[in-house]
Amino acid sequence: MEEVNYKRQKSKFCSDNYEQYEQSTTWQTELAKIIEKNIPVDCFAVYNSSKRGAVCEKQFEDISKETGGEMFPAFEVELEHGQELLIGHITKQILLYVGGEGNGNELVNAYTQKFGKMHA
After folding, report:
1. Is the CB of residue 63 less than 8 Å from the CB of residue 41?
2. Do 60 and 43 form a contact (C-beta atoms < 8 A)?
3. Longest Cα pair distance anywhere in the chain, in angstroms?
């Protein structure tokens, strides 16, 4: 919370934008709200080549574990495999949601047959 408040006060460019939000918050505070609503969160740790590692990987692991979501290993989104992983997972989740309990898996199977294996 100290870092959040410091950055809100320090950044002149963003301080006006922050005024629209009444209260400061952290990812932990928002996570508690998500958990309370039983929303699973899937996390993708994105590799940052300049820092030679995944950004926020530990926090993403915690978020996915506490919400019942999935954690995907670090990948480079610029690489084709990383893009396919991300698109495949998002597509699968959308099809499952749109199809509901009755037709979700059928939609995923139809998509897979037409476009190939999904990576998630």
Report:
1. yes
2. yes
3. 53
| pLDDT per position as a tens digit, 13-69 | 555 555 666 677 888 899 999 999 999 999 887 766 665 555 678 888 899 999 999
Tokens of 100: 């509901």
- Under 8 Å between Cβ of 43 and 69: yes
The domain segmentation of the chain, as residue ranges, is 1-37, 40-76, 79-120
DSSP count for the chain of H helices, then E strands:
5, 3
| Contact present, 31 and 67 (Cβ < 8 Å) | yes
C-beta separation of 72 from 45 below 8 A: yes
Cα 63 to Cα 40: distance, rounded to the nearest angstrom: 9
Query: What is the C-alpha to C-alpha distance for residues 54 and 51, in angstroms, rounded to an integer?
Result: 8
Cβ atoms of residues 107 and 98 within 8 Å = yes
* C-alpha span between 115 and 87 (Å, rounded): 12
